[in-house]
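Hi there. Long-time user, first ticket. I'm pasting a complex I've been working with (about 764 residues overall). I'd like to know whether the download I got is complete or cut off, because the file seemed smaller than I expected. Thanks.
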Amino acid sequence: MKNPLVALILGILIGVGGLYFMLPYEPATRGAREIQPEAAPVTEGAQRVAAGSTLQRVKRRGFLQCGVSQGLPGFSNPDDRGNWTGIDVDYCRALAAAIFDDPAKVRFRPLSAKDRFTALQSGEIDILSRNTTWTMSRDTQLGFDFVGVIYYDGQAFMVRKASGITSAVQLAGATICTQTGTTTELNVADFFRGRGLSYQVLSYEKNDEAISAYDQGRCDGYTTDASGLYAERLKMKNPDENIVLPEIISKEPLGPAVRQGDPQWADIARWTLNALVNAEELDITSKNIDEMLASENPLVRRLLGDEGAYGQAVGLEGDWVARIVRAVGNYGEIFERNVGAETPLGIKRGLNALWNDGGIMYAPPIR
Amino acid sequence: MAKAGQGARRGNGLGFSWYNPRVRSVIYQAAVLGIVIGLVWFFVATAQQNLERLNISSGFGFLDTTAGFGIIQTLIPYTEQSSYGRAFLVGLLNTLVVAVIGIALSTLLGFVVGVARLSRNWLLANLAAAYVEIMRNIPLLLHLFFWYFVVLRPLPGPMQSLEPVPGVFLSNRGLILPEPVFDASALAFLSALILAIIGSVFLVRWSRKRQLATGQLFPAWRVSAALIVFLPALVWAIGGAPFHLEFATRGSFDYAGGMRLLPEFVALTLGLTLYTAAFIAEIVRAGIQSVSRGQTEAAAALGLKESTTLRLVVIPQALRLIVPPLTSQILNLTKNSSLAVAIAYPDLVAVFAGTVLNQTGQAIEVISITMAVYLTLSLLTSLAMNWYNARIALRER
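Hi, the file is complete. Here it is re-exported in full:
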């Protein structure tokens, strides 16, 4: 009775002891361990990512890992040769230009709505630029920092013209298709609940499945952000037979997000976005950038790095904004190129116009 | 302390000694156990540390938070104000209903096909063989896609529903059946039905006992069937119908009311049933063929009819071989039901490991709960099947 017990205890001690020496560090002392930036290991992943190290890791790796959608025209969409285009894509290119002076040093990782947060949490991607709505719970509970708003959106419904529906309140009793793992799923519930209307929601894993289900008549309506509706309508058999209802049922500020705990990286991401908007405000475009470098306007000189050391303050070069604008243009150029009036999407600037032009796009000054 | 024990007992053969193989084996096993415990502890601690550092919320408190999203098929009352815990139950029940129906249907179909494959009827045997070969050699996911995207999706829209039987509507929104609504006399009807079933059980037992004692046969099954049909029917005739059918009515988009089987549900159940039934058929065939030919011949020599031989001689012996692999198939079916996510059926994985995981972001908790659920379901199934297997095991005298 006593002997096996002694052996058991001894065995466990040997086992645990052996483990103790095999493991890289003692897990029980968490919190007490100092975070050492220079000791950041070579391994990929969120594990042991020390403060300030995301930029270093990106530089050492030689390219940026950017999480995008699986294909949403205007925001992040691959063509038949695998070239990505869209607002969210251009933002990542801008970030790569700021870091490497080369907008091509980005690898895009298509993520489903469901997988995107885990991908960012685990360190699979450096930045999530995937038409993601900035909400409090995502900002606080998921361990993210949203760095700003790149597109002010709102959720709306699409229905078949033949149904004769002209307003979302006529949707009582309808079946609505949507994608799982989005704010859309919650907003649609709020909308119908708030009005005491009955509805059914069918949530698909992939957006394309939801679209085709709606297109084949499994659902009476399809819902996502208004910009997305215009984009998805292009994929349908007969785009003209579908209309987008006028009601905007939610606020959807879409923006890039980074992991919490690396303020330098968050700053780089935030001020890259602000630089794009500030460049538009100062009329600096990809075409006139070389003339602008000779400008006497102190605002322009500061933005382009002729005065002050704003880029250096976040670990970049002084001409970071010049690099960005030369590579992808300013915010307005990105908007017009990807979703603007000249594109199949034909979206007006609306809320996304600059603050001095009737919109609410407003960036803190760089000074 | 160990040292003292070591010194005191060395040499008597029973005490602690490295030369005692029993002691060594205990130490080795304990060391392995220690390593396993240590590794688990290490992973848990690392995960906790990382979650804390990344400011990701953890813990199971989220189960009480309002879910805020809708689910298309709910077997228990559920609204958007219900909690994530409630959403979990809804998903679990949706999984269970598919699993239970799938298990019942596939076992039934599997037995029929398995027996048919051994039939002397050439056409029947070959049809059964073709069924088995086709069904079990196509991946399950394709079965689901076939039923969902090829068969059910192209059905007409809800306003052009097919109406094969009055009150039954079939469209791409699903199969809508009239809903039985129980009336006041339902209680009497139900008690009559239960009474008839209990009576039949006693009748069958009594007749078996009598047969063993006196050799006289009593048509117990036929009398029982009559009892089960006529006693409730009598109550129906006296007390009036126990329920009336409520037919679905045309709404603005779709038929409202009635009982609705979603196309997602139908596709999943059909796919799982047809796929698993092919495997069960092979198990049944193997079981029956393993019963030695002498048994059948002996039964024939005794003058038993072919159906009686199958029922009393072959099946009971075959079952001993059928049940253990059948358990595996039942477990597979339950776990395979998680492919529901591919066709948007709101099962546990879609609702809980999908939507809830994404809304809360608590991957570790949600995935562990989901894994624990499947483990528990499987272990319970195994337990039940093992109990049944022990009951039908050969009792050697």
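A couple of notes from our side: The first helix of chain A runs from residue 2 to 22. The first strand of chain A starts at residue 64 and ends at 68.
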